[in-house]
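tmp note - Major facilitator superfamily (MFS) profile domain-containing protein
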Amino acid sequence: MDGGVPEADVSAFRECLSLSWKNPYVLRLAFSAGIGGLLFGYDTGVISGALLYIRDDFKSVDRKTWLQEAIVSTAVAGAIIGAAVGGWINDRFGRRKSIVLADTLFLVGSVIMAAAPSPAILLVGRVFVGLGVGMASMASPLYISEASPTRVRGALVALNSFLITGGQFLSYLINLAFTKAPGTWRWMLGVAAAPAIIQVGLMFTLPESPRWLFRKGREEEAKAILRKIYPPNEVEDEILALRDSVALEVKDLDSSENISIIKLLKTKTVRRGLCAGMGLQFFQQFTGINTVMYYSPTIVQLAGFASNQTALLLSLITSGLNAFGSILSIYFIDKTGRKKLALLSLCGCVLSLALLTATFRQTETHSPMVSAIETSYFNNTCPSFSQTVNPKEWDCMKCLKAECGFCASGSNKLLPGACVSSNDATKAMCGKDHRAWYTKGCPSKTGWLAIMGLALYIIFFSPGMGTVPWVVNSEIYPLRYRGICGGLASTTCWVSNLVVSQSFLSLTVAIGTAWTFMLFGFVAFIGIFFVLIFVPETKGVPMEEVEQMLEERTVHLKFWQKSSPPQKR
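out:
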């Protein structure tokens, strides 16, 4: 084991399940705080389906790729601010109040989005939602981590990741439910207000984090909560450990409210923790997960499935696999360990991204040709096609790059079709003959391989890199720096998310979908070596001993050699 950390009991998962009858209070805390994860996941998933219908309602959005990216990424920009200030709010006012504030912002944003009369107002609502999501993304796992017994801490924080993926799955179900309803996307975005209201009500019935109460000198309140969380034979040891941790903090002349970045970087344990925590968040995003979640239906269309409903239905399958993967992580996180799970996950991501690269490259280079005869039938020829010198060289991909639409052959989608101007009248004329209309991707006989690649990517990513960064960041920092460091790690996550989500569609246009996925695969490959060298194993380490582990651990450059355990103090 890396760093000489004691192994966690392999029965941690079973013990977590037994809490439902042994100590339901702990599960109640975890589930109530985990609704923040549900909101996080719902917003990630719902925009992918809503975007298909927003494009239909606002033609300016349909014509401008940057505006589609802005609708997705303004929420991410809001989340960056929410995560950045969330660390300070968590330390100053407590974890519970931070979660309530996050819910309030999410509620306001949902109402604004549902009523938005224009793309500009929609963007304002997305910012409010982003602020709430950013705060919840760090406050919820932090609250769960600090209110969980050590032996099941990883499983309960992984529960938050399950609720994130559960929120994504729920969003696709709701997207499908409202595809035929008037106002489609308004319902999809507005429904998010409901879980936010529920969580506000639940959080008023729950206590503050006992570790935060200890830091603020409210020991009696903290002891009362700890006695509800821990068995009688363990609670006194936990109280003593917390008291020692706070005593160390008192010796520090600067309080956490006066911490500077320079001071953080000068503190060896914090520097090592930040390197691991922020690095994991970086690689989580730059392996491309949120492009899959934000743009999943669009990716399905790029693979050759034209219908909005078909794209949403196939995206629902990948979202369901994501939720299933997070259930697996609850079992494996305390049995296999954080580091091993992350490594297995990244290796699988590299393989599945390679499959996606090969499949989309095949689709791009073997798309159906454009037929001049088929095109003339519409009397609405694509301007670029009518002016070209070599019409026989045109295929579907070239047609779409000219910002036109491709109407597939009625008898066989892979046969030559028509390249025509992209507008509602031409789309309706194409559909009248029961022919498929393409504006995002082309018909392909290997489209099913892209769906398989997406499914494999989700299956590998979700149990490992989907969960491990959040679990590690909730437990790797010393108590007195936990809020501010968690905020920095969440900010890293959201800044990375913003870069990836804002650039994905533009990259697919500029270099093609295949090479975009290849870039993600290359980052995942580098991530394997990062985890091997910089990330310690925190499985089974009491939170009060994490600081000692980081103090004694060295950077493991020779990762192929087994590290020697640190000397006991």
